[in-house]
Amino acid sequence: MQSGLRTRLLQAFSEAEGEFLSGQKLSETLGCSRTAVWKHIEDLRSEGYELEAVRKRGYRITHKPDKISGNEIQLGLKTEFMGRHIHFEEVVSSTQKIAHSLAGDGAEEGTIVVADQQTGGRGRLARAWYSPKQTGIWMSMILRPKIPINKTPQLTLLTAVALIQAIEEVTGLTPEIKWPNDIMINGKKIVGILTELQAEADRVHSVIIGVGMNVNHTLDQFPEELQAIATSIAEETGEPADRAQVIQAIMKNFEKLYTSYLIHGFKPVKLLWESYAISLNKNLIARTLQGTIRGRAIGIDDEGVLLLETAEGKIEKIYSADIEIQT
């Protein structure tokens, strides 16, 4: 099927919201014969779509295959700028690498890079991120905020809130945040966030935010060393999720928070982040490059820095660390 006709056909079904569309209506929408409409319907079926056909009523999609593409993400997307430009690849080394290249070439704010599989996915501290095909969301977002460099860590926390809101919206699950960038469900990690910059000493050119979300993994699909510490939406709900729908929810919630942040600042985001934080008011061990610090987490400051109160009553600022929650 020609990509333009395919997009318009899927758009028509998306706008119909589950209602039947007659062959005549589709013929007029696509500008082709009813015989051609039938052929396009069969093409969709061959791609894994399930369609119901009822005499004198027409067609409707009853099931979509779990596949992601630029078309699938944009159909039904409810944003002004987030996700309106999509660079999709089946397999990449890293969506972050591609996003950095696109940002350097002038890609618009809100552009996203999405892959079905990463062979060299990475998280904080250059750690590998397991990114198999047809299971997760491997994505990078390009932003161009006019903010000082020291404020950019706030965007990691904002992203965490948007991701939690999206997961809640689509699945009903209630994740929690482990500072600074891990999203957890039932004590296991489901999402990681990686924030990188293209900047000069006094100016941010772009912020590249990478998101790795475990969506439809089963437990046995995780490497053995991850099975005790990682989970997925499918593992927690007992059923697979539509990855394109999850991305759409991420885009919608992120755009709303980000737009508000640029107008009203970090305080509203901070309050939301703290409401989801698993580590607040708990005793933590923070392992930093400078050493190990123990204390009670009392919050984050306006730069998103974790504040620990030690046994001696001293407030320690934690900029980067591996965090262990003491039980």
UniProtKB/TrEMBL annotation:
Residues 23-42 bind DNA. Biotin binds at residues 118, 122-124, 189. The keyword 4Fe-4S does not apply. Residues 71-262 form the BPL/LPL catalytic domain. It comes from the Bacteria. GO terms for biological process: protein lipoylation; regulation of DNA-templated transcription. The keyword Transferase does not apply. It is an enzyme of class 6 (ligase). One of its GO terms (molecular function) is DNA binding. GO terms for cellular component: cytoplasm. Its EC number is 6.3.4.15. It catalyses: biotin + L-lysyl-[protein] + ATP = N(6)-biotinyl-L-lysyl-[protein] + AMP + diphosphate + H(+). Acts both as a biotin--[acetyl-CoA-carboxylase] ligase and a repressor. Belongs to the biotin--protein ligase family. This is Bifunctional ligase/repressor BirA. The gene is birA.
